[in-house]
Design goal:
alpha/beta, Rossmann fold, 8 strands, elongated, 14 helices
């Protein structure tokens, strides 16, 4: 009898449990490996775009975003990129991209190009605490070698990458992304440097920037975005820090090259911790300025699809096929009776789509349906 009573008591709970089922949600993979270069175990985080594993789009390649401080920055960056690029959000501001987060827990070692004991105000470290904090700095070149030989190699061997690379870093990460832009410009097409620690070693790389920028290779477009906090909230204590960032912009303003585009983005009502979110969004918009075109423009003139992506190659430096998702939504609009049906334009878009994605059953079926309808109406 007691067992029966207990069962009756638990029955509603069991019923509720059956209604709500939990399933794990994945947002990428974590890879751990022993780096010969660094002599230690390292971790990277990888997320592929929503369309990456769709069979019909298996010929598409993707730009790659490399973001420092992977453990903390990887997940919010994937959210920003996903929102700005994937069809679930009906938002095509930027292309879909592979995102690689690189863990940098030994930040003073990995993210500083040269050893220094100078503080953000430009003064040398005086207290034991200040000196201890700066200890072990200056491993930036070794870290770059690790990026090139370990991380790039792994990503480009295992994923369908486009040769367009973006480098994102905040604070000391912003220092190393700026250093890389100036000293190793061949590694990345675009840089997002978020409130960077350009004060490092008395603003050494800001002072060297005018000379280094003159040697910037002119073989392709390079874009540099840097954001800076509202230093007023710090009571002027970070003026040296802020001035260094504004001065990197002044150095770039003196370089007249059609293949260099830069933006200094002062973001009010932010501090050093809160500025990354707006910087990721604003920086990606800057890098891919001109990428987005309205679907209604494409529907008016389908020839714009191919011509626009040729413009993107010349103006942004990104060479890629028109994405599958763009063709898909245009075909939907142009073949749906309750949208903007136009069989002539639909046929043109479908033939173009099949040129890039010949194995797509969706495009094949839609074209077959148009042919059948055309025969029946003759």
């Amino acid at each position: 009898m007691k067992k029966a009573i207990i069962f009756l008591i638990l029955l509603p709970i069991l019923s509720i449990a059956q209604q709500f089922k939990s399933e794990p949600v994945e947002n990428g993979v974590q890879i751990k490996f022993n780096s010969r270069i660094m002599g230690e175990e390292r971790t990277i985080w990888i997320r592929v775009p929503a369309s990456y594993n769709e069979a019909a789009g298996s010929t598409q390649t993707y730009p790659v975003v490399y973001v420092l401080d992977g453990k903390s920055a990887f997940f919010p960056v994937t959210g920003v990129v996903s929102f700005m690029s994937e069809k679930d959000h009906v938002n095509y501001q930027i292309p879909e991209m592979i995102i690689v987060g690189v863990d940098t827990e030994k930040r003073f070692r990995d993210l500083t190009p040269i050893a220094s004991t100078r503080q953000p105000d430009g003064e040398k470290a005086k207290t034991p605490e200040q000196k201890l904090m700066m200890q072990g700095s200056g491993g930036g070149e070794k870290f770059l070698q690790f990026l090139k030989e370990d991380v790039f190699t792994y990503i480009e061997q295992h994923y369908r990458t486009n040769p367009f690379r973006i480098y994102i870093g905040h604070s000391l990460g912003g220092l190393t992304t700026t250093y890389t832009f100036l000293n190793h410009p061949e590694l990345f097409n675009a840089t997002i440097s978020i409130d960077p620690s350009l004060w490092w070693d008395s603003a050494k790389y800001v002072n060297e920037a005018p000379t280094l920028l003159k040697n910037l290779p002119a073989d392709k477009m390079r874009k540099y975005y840097v954001s800076v906090i509202d230093s007023i909230s710090y009571g002027g204590r970070l003026q040296f820090h802020s001035n260094a960032i504004f001065n990197i912009g002044k150095a770039m303003s003196g370089i007249h090259s059609k293949n260099l585009q830069y933006k200094v983005d002062y973001i009010p009502n932010t501090d050093h911790s809160s500025i990354p979110m707006l910087s990721w969004y604003n920086g990606l918009l800057f890098i891919f300025n001109g990428y987005h075109k309205s679907h209604f423009d494409y529907m008016k003139d389908p020839d714009l699809i191919e011509s626009h992506f040729k413009e993107i190659e010349s103006e942004i430096g990104l060479k890629m096929n028109p994405p599958y998702d763009i063709f898909e939504i245009l075909v939907h609009y142009l073949t749906s009776p309750d949208r903007y049906p136009d069989p002539i334009k639909a046929r043109k878009v479908l033939n173009m789509a099949l040129k890039y994605y010949p194995s797509s059953p969706y495009f094949k079926d839609k074209l077959k349906a148009l042919d059948t309808k055309s025969l029946l109406s003759d």
